[in-house]
Amino acid sequence: MVQIRKGFFLGAFLAMVFCLLACSVSKMTSEEKRMQRMMIAQKVKDSLDNRTFKIDLNYVIPRRMRAHSLEYGYSIQVKGDSVDAYIPFFGEAYRAEYGIQDEGLKYKGPMSGYEVLPVKKDLYRVNILAKKPLDEILYQIEVFENGVATLYVRSLNREDIRFNGEMVINE
Fold first, then answer.
1. Global pTM value
2. What is the full DSSP assignment across 98-127?
3. Chain-centre distance of CA 153, in angstroms?
4. For residues 109 and 63, what is the distance between their CA atoms, to the nearest angstrom?
5. Backbone region of residue 99 per phi and psi (left: phi > 0; alpha: psi in -120 to 50; beta: other values)
6. How many angstroms separate the most distant Cα atoms in the chain?
7. Gap between the Cα atoms of 150 and 130, Å rounded
8. Which of 58, 93, 110, 139 is deepest in the core (most CB within 10 A)?
9. Which of 167, 141, 142 is nearest to 40 (CA)?
10. Distance (Å) of CA 34 to CA 28, 41, 44, 144
11. How many CB atoms sit inside 10 A of residue 98's CB?
12. What percentage of the chain's residues is helix, strand, coil (to nearest 5)?
């Protein structure tokens, strides 16, 4: 009985010491956290200015349907003067062409327009215009300094739709 008690207390003591060490190692000081936030904010700004960024989308908010999360794989990526938008569409289409496979809001090609506007101290708005043969799509992205983003998609032939996601920030 005494042997079991000693083993139990020794095990509990070692677990407490391990937890304390793990907590003390992973804690960042407030200065380190501030520096990390500043570094991420600078990477977000540089990515927008250099036209090289990717935003992974994880949530969709259609106009007439319920909002829901998205599976992995949907994103919008900008590289130089081109955009690659792999985005689903949920909602009403106002015009559909007969005999043409409709790809919704997906687009891969050159941008017709690109503009970055500072909205607030920690928020940027990016307007990207893409022209398809029978449609014109405006991708409006609002990106916070921490990389959290909201994508608004406006099309001539479809209802507006909104997505939430995060900018992929390379370390």
1. 0.78
2. TTS---TT-EEEE-SEEEEEEEETTEEEEE
3. 14
4. 27
5. left
6. 84
7. 18
8. 139
9. 167
10. 10, 10, 15, 16
11. 4
12. 25, 40, 30
